[in-house]
Recover the amino acids of this structure.
């Protein structure tokens, strides 16, 4: 006995939610929900779920928050049903493009004369990290960035800054001003005793080398702590 073929409805008869690409063309990207935008990156669904359904499940697995999704590792994204290696790669690529757009807005030699500017520059590098990282910003006399160097990667609660390396990088790059930064994955901007100690040690080394120590900035997603603004350097 021959099984009757399942009649498929034409795409034009689907609801707007089920065809987000058409909705985007008609109404613009801002009219789409997070799940709808994500479904366009996903591309196609499975026999069990549409691309929109998969996108909704993926967001639900990450607190329905794009910021939390941005922190996800590759294998964590693959844990959502309906997402394989190629789709996970597309999602990770889309997330990375978003970060690079933020970085591109600053230009090649941004002005980093204030802690706010430093935070804006460093945020794309730090906002999705699950562990602490230390970074060095080397500048000329006009506070224009010469070079950005990642110094180290540590644990959830601490990282290391090698003062000898900091001074070496500053001299080799003819920097007259430097700022150090590190992130707090906990999103707590308050400096630790170790943060205070390393700041004082870097300040002393800079005085010896006649390099201006502009600041030590603790970078969190929405806020920051500046040793300069708080009168501690």
């Amino acid at each position: 006995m021959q099984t009757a073929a399942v009649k498929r409805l034409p795409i034009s008869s689907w609801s707007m939610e089920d065809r987000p690409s058409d909705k985007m063309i008609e109404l613009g990207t801002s009219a789409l929900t997070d799940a709808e935008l994500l479904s366009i990156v996903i591309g196609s669904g499975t026999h069990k779920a549409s691309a929109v359904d998969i996108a909704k499940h993926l967001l639900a697995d990450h607190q329905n928050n794009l910021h939390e999704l941005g922190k996800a590792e590759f294998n964590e994204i693959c844990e959502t049903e309906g997402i394989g290696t190629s789709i996970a790669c597309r999602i990770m690529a889309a997330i990375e493009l978003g970060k690079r757009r933020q970085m591109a807005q600053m230009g090649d030699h941004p002005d980093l004369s204030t802690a706010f500017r430093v935070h804006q520059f460093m945020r794309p590098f730090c906002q999705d990290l699950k562990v602490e990282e230390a970074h060095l910003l080397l500048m000329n006399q006009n506070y224009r960035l010469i070079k950005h160097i990642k110094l180290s990667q540590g644990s959830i609660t601490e990282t290391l800054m090698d003062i000898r390396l900091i001074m070496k990088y500053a001299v080799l790059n003819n920097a007259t001003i430097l700022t150090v930064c590190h992130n707090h994955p906990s999103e707590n901007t308050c400096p630790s005793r170790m943060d205070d100690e390393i700041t004082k040690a870097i300040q002393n080394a800079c005085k010896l080398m006649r390099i201006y120590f502009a600041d030590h900035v603790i970078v969190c997603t929405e806020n920051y702590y500046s040793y300069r603004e708080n009168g501690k350097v």
